[in-house]
Amino acid sequence: MKGMIHMNDLVIMKNQQAVTSSLQVAETFEKEHRNVLATIGGLLKNKHTQHMFAKETYINEQNGQSYPIYYMNRDGFTLLAMGFTGTKALKFKLQYIEAFNSMEEQVKLPTSPREIARLALQANEETNQRLDSVEGDVKDLKENQVIPNPEYSALNRRVNQRVSEVAHSYGHITQKQRGELFKDIGSGIKKIANVSARSMLRKKDYQMVMDFINDWEPSTATKTIIRQTSLRFDKEPA
């Protein structure tokens, strides 16, 4: 049975717009990602839908390979999810609607101190709410913004480089062993940043994550798995 889906995992901010990804949709609705990509491809044949989807790539943490992914806004998700039926699908659609509403409401928050002060005084003139507390809320919102795409891409490139550096120290290494290294470093990144997926990394955590990648070494468990795999490989008859 699929576990509870948290709203914060469904919708993210990207290019100043609330969006979700084809990968997240596939996971939430328990569908094959390639089938979701195929459905989006069909939708994109209509020129009126092309502004609703943006194609990018992501790094699979299991094998380190690049794969296509689509990001979509609320309209794109609505079109895509029209074909998802059933009680469970309806529940997830409602969760997505709530997540989009929540994220879009955050975007509407005032950004300038003067605007914040004006709205705060209008809302409650009698208590004369302190400006610095409101600014603190805005600062917290900004600090929790999802990492921008250039920085996200830089982190992924450094992950690939660091895994290659560590893999080189082992000499001959199989694709499966390399996959264990990607799994190890990916798990570490998510753990220190307290996120469920690398695409959810926060802007404020960029330098901390980059420092972790630069210093990363595989865990003892991962080293043991690689060593055991190498022993089995060496024992196989030529």
UniProtKB/TrEMBL annotation:
Specify the domain of life of the species encoding this protein: Bacteria
The record's section on Pfam families has: ORF6C (PF10552), Phage_pRha (PF09669)
* Record domain ORF6C: where: 118-225
InterPro entries, per database record: ORF6C_dom, Phage_regulatory_Rha
Protein name, UniProt field: Phage regulatory protein
To which species is this protein native? Lactiplantibacillus pentosus
